[in-house]
Prior knowledge:
Low-confidence stretches: none
Distance between the termini: 57 Å
Keywords: Membrane, Transmembrane, Transmembrane helix
Protein name: Short-chain fatty acids transporter
Number of strands: 0
Helix content: over 70%
InterPro entries: SCFA_transpt_AtoE
Strand content: under 5%
Organism: Megasphaera paucivorans
Number of helices: 23
Structural class: mainly alpha
Oligomer: single chain
Largest sheet: none
Radius of gyration: 24 Å
Amino acid sequence: MVTPTTEKSVCEDRKTRIMNKFIQWSLDWIPDSMVFVLLLTLIVFLLSLGFTEHGVWQLVDDYAKGFWTLLTFSMQMSIMMVTGFVIADAPPVKKLIIKLINLPKSVPATIVMFALVCGVVSWIHWGMGLMLTIIMGKEIAIRKKGRGIHYAYIVAIAYTSMNIMANGISQAAPLLSATPGNFLENIMGIIPISQTSLSPFMMTLLLFFLVSLPLIYLGIKPKAENAVEISEENYKEFTHVTPKEIVENRRIRPAERLEKSRILTFLAAILILVWVANFIIVDGIGNINLNVINFAFFGFGLLLHDSPNSFINSVKDGASTIYGVVIQFPMYAGIFGIISYSGLAIVITNWFLSIATPGTYPWIIFIYTGIMDFFVPSAGSKFVIEAPYLIPAAQQLGVPVQMVINAYGSGAQWANLIQPFWALAYLAAFKIKFQDILPFTFLLWLFVGIVCSAYFLIFPFGW
């Protein structure tokens, strides 16, 4: 006799098998990002051979012309990633995280606080959000042990709140579009972030997510009796304190005093932040661009570290995150060169024009980006490749360019919820498997997909 309990168990087993197959397929078939860019180069090269008049040597020449066009953008993105790490790694920030975690007395209040803090910080700076969500998630797992909070659930909140809310002022496409002299300026001009990240259209969407996400997290929280908390092994490892290095009784060199002095970093930070404040007062917050954002975060990084030594040591640790940008962005620029100079951009633009209407184009961009981002999980580098044909198609359809940027960013963050690539840092830090968090991230993926699809279909031109 089949009981309701048996049916439920069979259904859960089927869901688990499907998810495990999906995860295994992702891990088996989605290669390293370096392999991605090489495969993309080959695909674009072959498409250009088949659909344009350029021959092999001309395409190599197109690749060479484009290869160096992203040097400025590469450095800008590198600085952004490192400064985010440096701020989140600062001792005052870590102390503040512990104080915040100790404030809520109940588990639901802890979850709401966690989601809100992670969301707001990730909106300001996705790199800082990535670091902070990991640090904060670990501390919650440790300090709330025994309160019945499922470990994988904590990791899922950290990962999804960062990804959904990272569609903010630090996202590459809006900031690049707002920066004078960017390599796409001749295609679309300058699009200030007051029309993209800071527009009423996007602020309303993200405010909705900021309010609704904590409620959803509470709704999908595993019951305390079913919770699997942090393992004893992880608990011991995360709470292990490294003995402080014994300082020898020796003469301190004058240069060493400067290296450990707070005065130099403090003065530099104040000068930078005063300049940023003056820029915002004179030009307005809607006109900030990638350079201004990076300058501000550089200043905050200096301010939060108590010496040049502390700052540069944090930079050294954060520099390990940018090797992909340094090597791969020029290669993406080469792909951009082939697409732009060979005429392939015109071919792809015409294809989009054949399937889209002004009312459906932003939604098509959202879905298209969500699919493509699963295979090329880097919104900044992918925008370099896709902008030469997405923007002209929008212009010919009469769709505001800023709506393409808004839909593009939303689609990229949506895809990341079920894409293992950006989860790797979380999986390594929390020592957990992707299949453990996927049941939670998949539900959020469905929710975000439905909300964004409805939003872009109802308001294709913004408001």
